[in-house]
Amino acid sequence: MSDTPPVCDYEGSDYRTRFWENQGRDYEDQVERVALRQMMPPSGGTLIEIGAGFGRLADEYVGYERVVLFDYSRSLLREAQSHLGDDPRFIYVAGNWYEMPFVAGLFDTLVQIRTLHHAADVPALFAQLARIARPGGDYILEFANKQNLKAIARFLTKRQDWSPFAPEPVEFVALNFDFHPRWIQARLQEAGFHPGQMRTVSHFRLGPVKDKLPTGLLVSADSMAQRTGNLWQLSPSVFVHNANPSWGEAAAIGTFFACPTCGVPLGDVDNGRLRCQTPTCKRQWSFTDGLYDFKEPLT
Ligand SMILES: C[S@@+](CC[C@H](N)C(=O)[O-])C[C@H]1O[C@@H](n2cnc3c(N)ncnc32)[C@H](O)[C@@H]1O
Q: Which atom of ligand 1 is nearest to the CA of 73?
């Protein structure tokens, strides 16, 4: 697996308490929820959140029969598990988004928020998501927009050397990328998705503005501004709704996990393990205390 792209590892991270809890980001949390509710079908069969972290947005998925919270960090998934309790609709899966451990055509809805900035190989990631999306499914993607007003101002006043107008991603810190909307749309199309509606989000993500004005007012103003997302994109965050083409095959009933190494469907858990039956693979993956772990094989 040495040729897989590098991963930004949140194992053991204090992301929840350091970034969200009482950290003055109610505005960001609320405007992201507004955009998500506008784009995501409110109910359905099986949903996956890719890079779900500690499950910040899990309460948005009440209308779904099964919800996979997928993340590379076991510790963040354990935090999700502890605050969501034993709701059987939630399935916790640790793994790498470049090697998704699911059969093709499985998910009705895919959601990915605040994670694409860690993707060093976006085409490889989108190819995996197009594979596991059900024909006619929906993929709601949020990405960090390099063409935002702050970056434009910094570039024009020569305080930033990279151009916010250039299409290629910019890695401003190791494994942290900002993307141009046109570049993202082109990569989505190459993967087979049909990118459609866009919503620009978090227009008022500025400390002094957030300090002076009530959060509710800013959220209302942002909700209105989000609607201009298909005309121009100058906000730091952009949501894009993608339709998966309606042709192709849905996953066979009863199938779910697939070996992330060889791609063959896996059977049921046996003695705390999922076992790949391919003679040349034979890898085994652990299921412990409600967490499916595809980060490394047991054997
Ligand atoms: C900034 S956090 C966002 C968490 C969540 N989406 C939210 O908005 O609260 C980024 C998440 O992406 C996950 N991540 C990064 N690279 C990953 C990869 N290759 N496979 C799966 N998850 C990954 C991290 O573990 C982390 O939980």
A: 25
Ligand 1 midpoint to CA 80 (Å): 13
At 137, give phi and psi (nearest 5°): -75, 175
Please give the domain boundaries of the chain with CATH numbers for all domains.
15-256 (3.40.50.150)
Q: Which tokens belong to 178?
A: 């900002």
Q: Specify the pLDDT at position 2.
A: 53
Q: In angstroms, what is the span from residue 49 Cα to ligand 1's centroid?
A: 10
Scan for tokens 């042709």, then name that residue. Answer: 247
Q: What residues pair up with 125 in beta bridges, in sequence order?
A: none
142-146 average pLDDT score:
98
The minimum-distance atom of ligand 1 relative to the CA of 5 is: 19
- How far is the first Cα of the chain from the last one, in angstroms, to the nearest whole number? 14
20: which strand partners? none
Q: Please indicate, yes or no, whether the overall pTM of this predicted structure exceeds 0.90.
A: yes
For 249-258, the pLDDT digits (tens) are: 999 999 999 9
**Residue-level pLDDT at 5:** 97
Q: Whose CA is nearest to atom 15 of ligand 1?
A: 8
Pocket test for ligand 1, best of 14, 118, 175 (most atoms within 8 A of CB): 118
> CA–CA separation, 76 vs 284, rounded Å?
23
